[in-house]
Design a protein that fits this description.
By secondary structure, the chain is of the alpha+beta class. The protein folds into two domains: about 5-135, Zincin-like, CATH 3.30.2010; about 180-215, no CATH class. It has helices at about 5-25, 75-90, 100-105, 120-135, 195-200, and strands spanning about 30-35, 50, 60-65, 180-185, 190-195, 205, 210, 210-215. Helix 1 (about 5-25) crosses helix 2 (about 75-90), helix 1 packs across helix 4 and helix 2 (about 75-90) crosses helix 4. The longest helix has 18 residues, at about 5-25. The two termini are about 35 Å apart.
Length: about 220
């Protein structure tokens, strides 16, 4: 028997939903589901996202379910999953209207369908699936949304379970206005440049080409 983790739970839940999609005339193309932050980053407002198969190396739709909800909200997670499966089935062109809206209402998502709220009809539909699979084996991930540092590795705050001043992750802090020195080894021509542009490439001396940066000035890469 396969060990149940949050990804196997999500993919098993999706498989149990597919017959209903087919009953409603919608075939879902090949896909996979994983837990992860969406392109919106650490947002408490975005619970899921569907990426088109053209962006995947093996031509599968990639569905990401945000870690903002835990096992106690398994029906909400299932609703988010169903929402993203509809996107894969009907295509992105109609947004949340047309075939998307028709399908979302048919399976029991409440208006506005952008919120992926399960109606009693939806909850009754997925209840046997949750009973069979158990709650999703995932604990809600939370982080401070106010009172933090505003950079990578935010400080602890309300809801984070951390004392003030404690980092919530080892995410590298962003270099905002710090200038890093670059010097030409041949003539000593010196400039300063932001870390952002160093990622694009080194600055160049007018006479001798690419310049070296001061290692002491460069941000650490270890995370």
């Amino acid at each position: 028997m396969q060990t149940m983790n949050r990804e196997t739970w999500l993919n098993a839940m999706a498989a149990k939903m597919l017959p209903r999609f087919e009953e409603l005339g919608m075939k879902v193309p090949p896909f996979r589901v994983a837990v992860g932050f969406t392109s919106s980053g650490k947002s408490m407002q975005v619970s899921g996202e569907c990426w088109h198969s053209s962006t995947s190396a093996d031509n599968r739709f990639e569905i990401l379910i945000s870690p903002i909800r835990g096992s106690e909200e398994s029906d909400r997670i299932a609703a988010t999953l169903a929402h993203e499966l509809i996107h894969a089935a009907v295509g992105f062109e109609c947004g949340h209207k047309g075939d998307f809206l028709k399908m979302a209402l048919a399976i029991g998502l409440e208006r506005p369908v952008t919120h992926s709220m399960p109606s009693p009809v939806f909850s009754a539909w997925v209840a046997p699936f949750i009973s069979e699979l158990g709650p999703i084996p995932h604990a809600k991930l939370s982080w401070p949304t106010a009172g933090g540092s505003g950079d990578g590795g935010e400080e602890g705050g309300e809801g984070s379970g951390l004392d003030a001043g404690k980092a919530s992750s080892n995410q590298k802090k962003k270099q905002k206005t710090r200038l890093i020195k670059a010097c030409c080894a041949e003539c000593g021509y010196t400039v300063r440049v932001t870390a952002r542009w160093l990622e694009v490439g080194p600055p160049h001396c007018p006479d001798h080409g690419a310049m070296e940066t001061d290692a002491a000035d460069e941000p650490e890469e270890t995370e």
